[in-house]
Design a protein that fits this description.
By secondary structure, the chain is mostly helical. The chain is built from four helices and no strands.
């Protein structure tokens, strides 16, 4: 079900770009997009790495689910993205 929703959303984005080919000519560069993605993933990995115990598979599983519940909440992800955007802004300007 989730894949169908993602597919529909993707198709809508593609159609919107095809309908307005000149819209968004001042797009963000691929390097800036990559830096944003890298900053978000680095932050998530650091918190993941600090939270995970690999003493046993059972403990690993419990830690992973606990980490997901704590660090993948929309509010937490929003804070991470905002922090990374501020860092990128300071690097670019």
């Amino acid at each position: 079900m989730a894949l169908k929703i993602m597919k529909v959303n993707y198709e809508q984005i593609v159609k919107a770009h095809q309908d307005n080919p000149h819209e968004g000519e001042d797009q963000v560069s691929d390097q800036v997009k990559f830096n944003l993605f890298q900053g978000i993933m680095d932050s998530l990995f650091q918190s993941f790495n600090a939270s995970i115990s690999m003493a046993s598979f059972q403990e690993l599983s419990a830690c992973v689910f606990s980490w997901i519940e704590e660090h993948c909440k929309p509010q937490t992800l929003q804070e991470i993205v905002i922090g990374v955007l501020h860092q990128l802004k300071n690097q670019l300007y």
